[in-house]
Amino acid sequence: MSGVPWFIKSKYDYYECVSAMQKCIRRGDEDNALFWATELFIHDAAAHAWSRLVVIASEDVGEADALMHLKITMLRHSWCETPKDQQINGKGRLFFIQAVLMLVHSPKSRKVDHAGIVYCEGERPDREIPDFAKDCHTRKGKELGRGYKHFFDVGARLENEAGQDIYRDSAKKIRMRSTDGLTPGPGPKPNTNLIYVPGGITEFAQLACNRDLGCVNGCKYCYGPASMHIKREDWTTPRVKENFLENLRLTLEKRERDDAPKHQVLMEYSGDCYGDPKDTMTGEAIKLMHEFGYGVCILTKCPTNALKDIHLFDSRIDCLGCTITTFDPAEIKEWEPKAPRPQDRLAALKEFHDAGIYTWVSMEPIISPATSLDVVKLTHQHVDHYKTGLMNVRGVPLPDGYSNHDWKAYAADFIAMCESYGRSWFAKHTLESYLPVGAVNEKFRPMYHG
Ligand code: SF4
């Protein structure tokens, strides 16, 4: 307030006067709203009254007239532009009175205020970022190889679309020009980073390439949904990254230009590149890797599906790994109900082993010590190397009594058994603290016959 203090000029309490103005506007009481508003206006509180009218436009009108806030703001702007000596007693008051009348007679809604209370002050349990939000404008979307096709088909989807958009298809074509490789255009850069150095996890291979988002096997202990921020129910409908093979070639060409080191490439950390029996893309990817001098380290729960590509594997640079955690029917039913039978996995592993390909088994996660050790017993004739590790996936309850197992005894038995069969072994970080003193846990071991 400026000039003479409010409490000298008006006989009313300032806050009660403001409150009366707003309550009368809410109730559509024109006479009283105008009285209390002008009580503020003529007693040196015009600027404060205007501020409150702008608030009322959102708090009490809100969605009922989405433009009301703008209208009141414009009237206030006109009032501010009025010469000072005409703001109260001259034409300036027209703007003020009009604003009060518009608010009095406007339809009302307090939804904005109530929604603010609910969303800003209420409980806020964590939510997952929706998959459709991960488009080419986000880091995750880029990692998933999503380009403008995904953006136009998924990211730009509208509900309640008004009118017919006759430009959509042309705009999509223009934005996709650079990704179809036919013409130059302003589209997104192709993903030339499909092969990467795995941060901290190099026990499989020195390089990695993830092709899929999701996995048909739907194992209950899978860490994929958590690490990729995807709901478990959506995880079991896998999708291959957009333009995977094109981008893999571009990635390999870029690495060639950059003189990047050539190593074996793991496919893949999450997902199963042989999950689909009809898929031919993994075979094409293997050929591409070989063309550029890279080996592959395949990790799958569906090695039977890989048999059609067995002729593509090169024993000097490639290997085939298979996850087998247990042969126990009850554990399989509980943890891997949708994955192929471990017996079938072993049969396929045998074929790869007989063909001279380096084979290995990931026993991670251990479901129970005894059944895990059985895996070594039952498979060692067809397997060159074993990796094992405890179950520790966020959000996945551990099997009963899991923490009470004697993991030191398990680790000692695992090592002794592998070594008695002449097989190499590796214990993941989850098991490392239980290893016998002096045990040499090699962080990286080439998995090919060289
Ligand atoms: S096979 Fe691997 S990626 Fe697929 S669901 Fe099972 S744990 Fe997850």
SS-based class: alpha/beta
The kinds of small molecule bound in this structure are: iron/sulfur cluster
- The percent range for helix content is 40-55%
Number of strands: 10
State the helix count.
Answer: 20
Topology as H/E string?
HHHHHHHHHHEEEHHEHEHEHEHHEHEHEH
* β-sheet strand percentage: 5-15%
Rounded mean pLDDT is: 92
Largest sheet: 8 strands, mixed
* CATH top level assignment of the largest domain: Alpha Beta
Low-pLDDT runs of 5+ residues are: 179-185
Name the CATH architecture of the largest domain: Alpha-Beta Barrel
Number of domains: 3
Instruction: Indicate the radius of gyration in whole angstroms.
Output: 34 Å
Query: Overall 3D geometry?
Result: elongated
Q: Gap between N and C termini, in Å?
A: 86 Å
CATH homology superfamily of the largest domain: Aldolase class I
The CATH topology of the largest domain is what?
TIM Barrel
Q: Largest sheet, order of strands side by side? A: 1-2-5-6-7-8-9-10
Report on the structure:
This protein has an eight-stranded mixed sheet. 36% of the residues are buried. Helix 19 links the parallel strand 9 and strand 10 (424-427). The protein is 43% helix and 8% strand. The chain is built from 20 helices and ten strands. It has three domains: 6-118, Zinc Finger, Delta Prime, domain 3, CATH 1.20.272; 131-179, no CATH class; 195-432, Aldolase class I (TIM Barrel). Residues 179-185 have low confidence and may be disordered. It starts with 5 loop residues before the first helix and ends in an 18-residue tail after the last helix. It is α/β, with parallel strands linked by helices and 450 residues long. Bound molecules: iron/sulfur cluster (SF4).
